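Bit of a strange request maybe. I'm writing a small parser for structure token strings and I need a real example to test against, not something I typed by hand. Could someone generate the tokens for this chain?
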Amino acid sequence: MNKPVTVSEEALAAPVPVPDVTPGLAAKGAIGAAAAGPAYVVLAGISFSHFLNDTMQSLIASVYPILKDAYALDYGQIGMITLAFQFTASLLQPLVGHFTDKKAQPFSLAIGMGFTFFGLLLLSIAGSYGIILIAASLVGLGSAVFHPESARIARLASGGRYGFAQSIFQLGGSFGTSMGPVLAALIVVPFGQPSIAWFSSIAFLAIVILWRIGVWYQPQIATKKTAVVERHPDAPDARRVKIALLVLVALLFSKQLYVSSLSSYYIFYLIDKFGVSTQAAQLYLFIFLAANAAGAFFGGPLGDRYGRKYIIWFSILGALPFTLALPYAGLFGSAVLSVIIGLILSSATSSIIVFAQELMPHRFGMISGVFFGVAFGIGGLGAAVLGKLADHTGIAFVYHVCAFLPALGLLAVFLPKMPRHAR
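Reply from user aminoacidic:
Good idea to test on real output. This should exercise your parser:
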């Protein structure tokens, strides 16, 4: 027999005011909205916006070889560019999420995308390393504003299919990340650094779409009312929630640091070990990132069906044999292994985020911001540390060390069993 659904869980599924924005929603209205199913147009719009946002973000890492040659940068300085971008994103995302928990901002997404717009324009005309760092920080600031509130909108439009909605949202971001290297190879490499300005048109398109989504979102926001939100009887206690959140952060650390090692330095690894051209290496990076996009899409629905804990187990620990084999593979073998690693590792993303959201549904924006922020922060700090390590030991040694990161997937044994809510 299905467990009774709590008011908080039903309300989060409804395309009307939700508990983290507007407590006091009637359960009856929530049930009817959930039965109506996901708002596919809104999900498509927010996913496409995520695609545009992450396409522009990934462009930064994709032009590293150009910047490295033009400004005589070492690997440590390359890592600092990633840190500048990811630091602003990771530091501000929890703050943005906490603020929007208290007061939703339907048009903040479009405003945040404006920072990305100006960051790309500045990067296209940057004449010094310091200006490059400022431009990267502006793009990171736009990301900090985008992710927490867009994740809330994705869940609001889910119709109760939280993993599915998060996967659709993540699919746009992952596919956008994979497009950066291709666009860099086709446009930036032939036409140089000034051609980055062309991508500001993508930011403008995203601003228009996000403004329209804000128009849809605004009527969903009502004046806050005092309400008592029920707690599911099978939900873990406060102590287990804290342990579970720490475990999820550790799992995200292992996943994100490995992905960061590939996305930031895979191009240099292929060039250094196999002597391929920059454009060819960017296409190999695209293959890995496209596999990430596919894995992110399937991970959420599988978590809805079989349980998020099992998908997290499989996606983190299951990648270990393949990451251990990668440093010893040839060029073709590296391409095949990168696809397998990308498919398996990225399937955890939606399950980890939704698991964390369900642990603390009343702090939805803050939790989303923390986990997106942790992902960006780990990527930035990891890129900087791995860059310094590569300068001293060689880029190949980095992949020998990072190969053991998925072993942290064993920590998933400490995750609690979450109640299965009625569909």
